[in-house]
Automatic annotation (TrEMBL):
A divalent metal cation 2 binds at E169, H201, H230. GO terms for biological process: epithelial cell differentiation; regulation of appetite; taurine metabolic process. Keywords: Hydrolase, Metal-binding. GO terms for molecular function: N-acetyltaurine hydrolase activity; zinc ion binding. The gene is PTER. Its cofactor is a divalent metal cation. Belongs to the metallo-dependent hydrolases superfamily. Phosphotriesterase family. It comes from Crocodylus porosus. It comes from the Eukaryota. This is N-acetyltaurine hydrolase. It catalyses: N-acetyl-L-valine + H2O = L-valine + acetate; N-acetyltaurine + H2O = taurine + acetate; N-acetyl-L-methionine + H2O = L-methionine + acetate; N-acetyl-L-leucine + H2O = L-leucine + acetate. One of its GO terms (cellular component) is cytosol. Transmembrane segments: none annotated. A divalent metal cation 1 binds at H26, H28, E169, D298. Binds 2 divalent metal cations per subunit.
Length: 351
């Protein structure tokens, strides 16, 4: 285990943290999201079954989880490879691939993509939300779950010798289920053994991140090595967000490029625009949190790819960074968010 100290573990092996460069900390390159299919209204069932075409792309953009083919990102390896080359050309260096057990993790494909593009790819260990937990997972003890997670980092995932370099995204629902609580406790135990980074997918309620952090803390997690994802759809109240920030984990805004009229998973949420995300990040910087902010796109459906008229993995570098500069966020602070903070988070702690 000491060999991991001070290193970052990619699907191609250990690298020095300084090799990562600009890093997207929450993406998917190959996965299935069939588990989260949202049946459309009866008058739109034909749209749900059809192929992806120019004439239905706007409907798919607004109803991404009601189009069956859109949920099968694993079918797009060639398009993803092309996009990773665009990402690299735009100055990108590394991607944290957050696909865990339950949504068709495929570490062999991740290794192939890393070899063919030269982009550093860090794979995720652990389990997604309760709805994807198998009967076997549900009856496991915290100790058994911990052993699986540790093994995916030390030995390899899914019957391969390809090792994960982060725990997560660990899936949580609202309300949190017993099975998810055990996975969180196992995550904390594995992290305390390994000194590794952790990333969490919180339930869709503003109290969910607080509950999760409390459980992780009680189980011995290192919050300074832990990321709370999807804050752009979870905590909207500024006072509550700053209260959460005091707990010490990383604050991730990772839905850049997702601008929806109606958020299918939680109709109460008005999904922010990218301009609003930038304004929120600037507020967090002004409040002293520049060392704790991370950014990404969380691409997990086909319509987000450039091949289907989407923004792709380079959107932040090509479009968001220039707008951040216009809004008075300095290049030094942008580099802190896109280079330095990911590097610090992904480096295994010295032990």
């Amino acid at each position: 285990m000491s060999s991991l100290s001070g290193k970052v573990q990619t699907v191609l092996g250990l690298v020095e943290p300084t090799q990562l460069g600009c890093t997207m900390t929450h993406e998917h390159l190959t996965m299935s999201y069939k588990c989260c299919f949202v049946p459309p209204s009866s008058d739109q069932e034909a749209l749900s079954e059809g192929h992806m075409e120019m004439k239905n792309l706007f409907w798919i953009k607004q109803n991404p989880y009601s189009h069956k083919e859109n949920l099968l990102l694993y079918q797009e390896t060639d398009a993803v490879k092309e996009e990773l080359l665009h990402f690299k050309a735009a100055g990108g260096g590394a991607i944290v691939e957050n696909t865990t057990t339950g949504i068709s993790r495929d570490v062999k494909t991740l290794k192939k993509l890393a070899e063919e593009t030269g982009v550093h790819i860090i794979a995720g260990a652990g389990f997604y939300v309760d709805g994807t937990h198998s009967p076997e997972i549900r009856v496991m003890s915290v100790e058994q779950l911990t052993d699986i997670i540790v093994n995916e980092i030390l030995s390899g995932a899914d019957g391969t010798n390809i090792k994960c370099g982060v725990i997560g995204e660990i899936g949580c629902s609202w309300p949190l289920t017993e099975s998810e609580k055990k996975v969180l406790q196992a995550t904390a135990h594995a992290q305390s053994q390994l000194g590794c980074p952790v990333i969490i997918h919180p339930g869709r309620h503003s109290d969910a991140p607080f509950q999760i952090i409390r459980i992780l803390q009680e189980a011995g997690a290192d919050l300074s090595k832990t990321v709370m994802s999807h804050l752009d759809r979870t905590i909207f109240d500024e006072k509550k967000l700053l209260e959460f920030g005091k707990l010490g984990c990383y604050l991730e805004y990772d839905l850049f490029g997702t601008e929806l009229l109606n958020y299918q998973f939680n109709p109460d949420v008005d999904m922010p625009s990218d301009n609003e995300r930038i304004a929120r990040i600037r507020m967090l910087i002004d409040e002293g949190y520049e060392d704790r902010i991370l950014m990404a796109h969380d691409i997990h459906t086909k319509n987000r790819l450039m091949n289907y008229g989407g923004h792709g993995y380079s959107h932040i570098l090509k479009n968001i960074v220039p707008k951040m500069l216009i809004r008075g966020i300095s290049q030094n602070r942008i580099d802190k968010i896109l280079v330095e903070n990911p590097k610090q988070w992904l480096t295994f702690k010295y032990r």
